[in-house]
Amino acid sequence: MANGNSSEAWYVDSCASTHITTNGDNLLEARTCDSVAITTANSQDMRAKFVGNVKISVLTNTGIEKVKAEEVLHVPDSAANLLSVSKMVEKGFSVHFTPNGSKIEDSDGHCLGIMTNEGGIFKLMTREERSYLAAKRPTAELWHKRLGHLNYESVIKLSKNHLVEFTLRR
């Protein structure tokens, strides 16, 4: 268990009862966990090997930030990295799902992560996701929509800080 940092894909799951990572290298302060069984939606049983914290590089309203997920189980047989909505709510966070831009906020309303809806599954936008999206050269208007209708001045500021790239329509 190495660096505890992740920029891999993470999915926000309202059915998950705990945070799960498929990659043990994501764990920080890892410790073994005995007899923690996970049952999936299709009734498959899996076992957690370790538990620890993970720092995830995510896109927020102000740029890339590292957020910490605590008590994340390492389940190598899991199909994906999952963030549990119920665990986030227990910690005092709010998770907002909207057609125009979904996000996670702390109790002060500070954005901790922006999600995209990919076929009904909400994916947290990570550093790798930002790089992928920038390669498509979207418009400022598209970034405005993707970032929950963030004002254009802030979208331009993100561009100046090389956090998003876009082409101007003429």
UniProtKB/TrEMBL annotation:
Top-rank lineage group of the source organism: Eukaryota
Pfam family membership, one: Pol_BBD
Segments forming domain GAG-pre-integrase: 132-164
Organism: Lasius niger (Black garden ant)
Residue ranges constituting the Retrovirus-related Pol polyprotein from transposon TNT 1-94-like beta-barrel domain according to the UniProt record: 10-93
Name listed for the protein in its UniProt record: Transposon ty5-1 protein
